[in-house]
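Quick entry, no commentary yet.
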Amino acid sequence: MALLALGFAGCGGGDGGSSFEGSIDVASVISRSTGTVYYLSTYVPPASAGPRSSLPVVYVLDGETWFEPLVGIVESTHTRVIIVGVRGSGQRNRDFVPGNSCTPDGGGHAAYFDFLRQELIAHVEGTIGGDPDQRVLFGHSHGGSFVLYALFSESPGQHSFMAYLASDASISCMPTVAYAWERDYASAHRELPVRLHLSFATLGNYAANLEYAEVIAQRSYERLVFVSQAYTGTHGGIVPQVLADAVGFALAGAA
């Protein structure tokens, strides 16, 4: 299975002196579903990558944090992909997760998913480009929990993304609900025709994610390409390596 090589030189944000082969832009969208303005950071590879309509698109939750590291990775590896970093607009606790034991104000995850699949995807593919069959969703922590929610919320053949990348998901904050997502899907469907990368930190949400991964593996879903992987490190510290590995895994399945 081909994975992206990690190249972090110059991946850190903030020096303002980096030159990119591709182009970066910032825009905003107003969501009808959530009533919130979301700022988007977008990366588009150079014209030599081919028609934009043929390119995979990686949607990155918490884009204010993880967009720049992923851009650094794809630039260093010359990976031809569009990146859309969706900034949280201060609403990640509301938008990513249901009510839970770790943070207040949850419960907006269904509306946020409607924003992604009914509004944002159409905006991106209509104004920037991207192949509808090569969409990828990445999230970390509460964002990782949202990725799992999104995965199990749609029926086979209706999935909005072809690959789901959940990094050290916060499912220990909502175990009953998180297990119900998967159980309800399994009770209705034998197929899960996507690629799923589930990662977890040895000094983070290791136990909860390992157990969740085992449940998924034991289902033996048809057409699922599944990798679960532990990373040595802290909850936030593993993300750069996870991004490199998980996006490489996702794009290995691209058409």
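second:
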Amino acid sequence: MDKLAAENKALREKLRLLEKEKESWRKTQFIANAADQLLTMIDRNYRYENVNRAYCRARGQRHEDVVGKCVADVWGKTQFESIIKPKLDNCFSGNVTSSEDWFKFDGRELRCFQVTYNPYRNDSGKITHAVVVTHDITARKHAEAGMKRANDRLERRVQMRTEALESANNQLRNEIEERNRVEKALRESEDRYRSVSRDMPAMVCRYLPDGNLTFANIRFKKHFQVSDEALLATNILTFFSDAEGQRMKKRLQLLHPQRPMVTYEQCTRTKTGETLWRQWTDRALFDEMGNPMEYQSVSIDITEKKNVESKLQQAQKMEAIGTLAGGIAHDFNNLLMGIQGNISLMYLDVNSWHPLYDNIRSIEQLVDSGANLTRQLLGFARGGKYVVKPVNLNTVVAKTASLFGRTRKSIRIHENYETDVRMVSADRGQIEQVLINLYLNAWQAMSEKGDLYLETQNVTIDEKFVKPFEINYGDYVRVSVTDTGKGIDPAISHRIFEPFFTTKEFGCGSGLGLASVFGIVKNHDGIVDFESHPGRGTTFSVYLPVSRETSKAPAPPPEGILKGPETILLVDDEPYILDVGVKMLKKMGYTVLKACCGEDAVRVFTEAHQQIDLVILDMIMPDIGGGEVFDRLRVVKPSIKVLLASGYSMGDAAVIIERGCNGFIQKPFGMEKLSHAIREVIDNGHHQPAV
């Protein structure tokens, strides 16, 4: 009984302690539920073990809906991993952790919480839970943000008021400084203006509406020879003629505030007869009422600019005349071709003792004279037979000077040649023609007696020098031909290179000499220029570009008429040339086919190309030109050999030559010249015996 009573007593004591502990837990739970803070207890498995009512109200959940659940399930994996878990792990390590974080409640608005994580230890001191105390500080955060915005607005207003006051003070100070600066700048500007205008290359002056000068720079005073002392007492109109002064007044009267400036050009002659060009710019300075207070005139020398423009205009005119001259020469050469061809045929039927031989010979000489005239025309028109090779100008000048000196013994020739003269790219025959024409021009200018100075020199010319001539600058060889004649009248100097222009009496010259010089030199990408002094003489200077090639000795040409057995297609739109050409070719032994135009040539060649060995092709035809015919023949038979024949020049045929044409012969030509050209193309000199 005693034992049972003791056990009963022990049970009652244990029950009392449990009741006491339960009462303590109810008190603790009551306190937790009465608190406004969100209180939770979380175990080491990140599961809620207990939460208070404030937490449930904040979450909108029941107590049993939260207890036992994982934190990640309640707050979402993203917020758990990024915000809550790192803090819990730190707490489970024994650290009290506090932070302010923004949380999103089940997709609702963001709220800010101040959270403190407290480690909970059991009786043995082991951390088993984290007690989390959470304060909702969203309202405080919003209030703080509102307060900050209000403070910012207040600060901005204070700053704006302060800045406005400072701005007013600064504006007043700046206005005072600006006035002082402007006054100083005006003084400095006036000093700079006078300093710059005093030393600038243009003439500058200023004058009042009545014309009295108030300022002039050094160049103005030097040009008009006025001293500093006399300047302020001088009227601008005294420097001009009455007529020019009246024109100046009218120009100034037309100026107004909307059109305060006028620019014009003025041409004057010096006492030596030299022409000067100046460009004037007059500007009016007006007061507030629009009345002129002062005028300023600036003048620059544009003589060089005018000379360049004049040369460019002259070059354009010469180009147009050259085109016309080339066309005339082409047609004339076709006529001479018909005559020369028939003469060649007549020579085959007459001997030197035949009664008509002298007449035939005379006709041939006239044809040669006509051909020489067309060569002059084609030379001017940038044509002629154009075979460019490296040439030593010392040799050419010396040879032509010797030839000219033997026939003009009244002329004393003085020669001065560059020791190591460079080679030039030129047609030797054309350059000889240029030099002879210049010698003859000098001889006539000296009334058939005087001194002729010939000089060669290696020169390098710059971009400024070649600009009016539209060629490349660089290395050239200059040939100078100077006479002691009467010189060239400045009034006609701009016309001396025009074809048929001459100052000689009728019948004493063709007017093609200098025109031919101009055309040939231009065709060589060169320059011909002159300097003349009336009564003292003239110097013509020819500039030819330096060659990059080396000279080779030409092979001696064969003599006599060369024959052959081949078949030739002759193409020409002139019936008389076609007729005489067929006859000449047959006399040489060839089988001849003919075509009177480009389309006819293509048709005949297409039908008989297998037996045709050579095509003699005219360049200029009314339907399709020689270039297109050449291309179409090569399509039919790529290996066909073609000899171009034209009243124009090889220079004009160069484009077709470069495409693979085999040769060129310039009209007019005789049988011998034609036979050599044919054999050169067909077999490069392996020809039948001459007759």
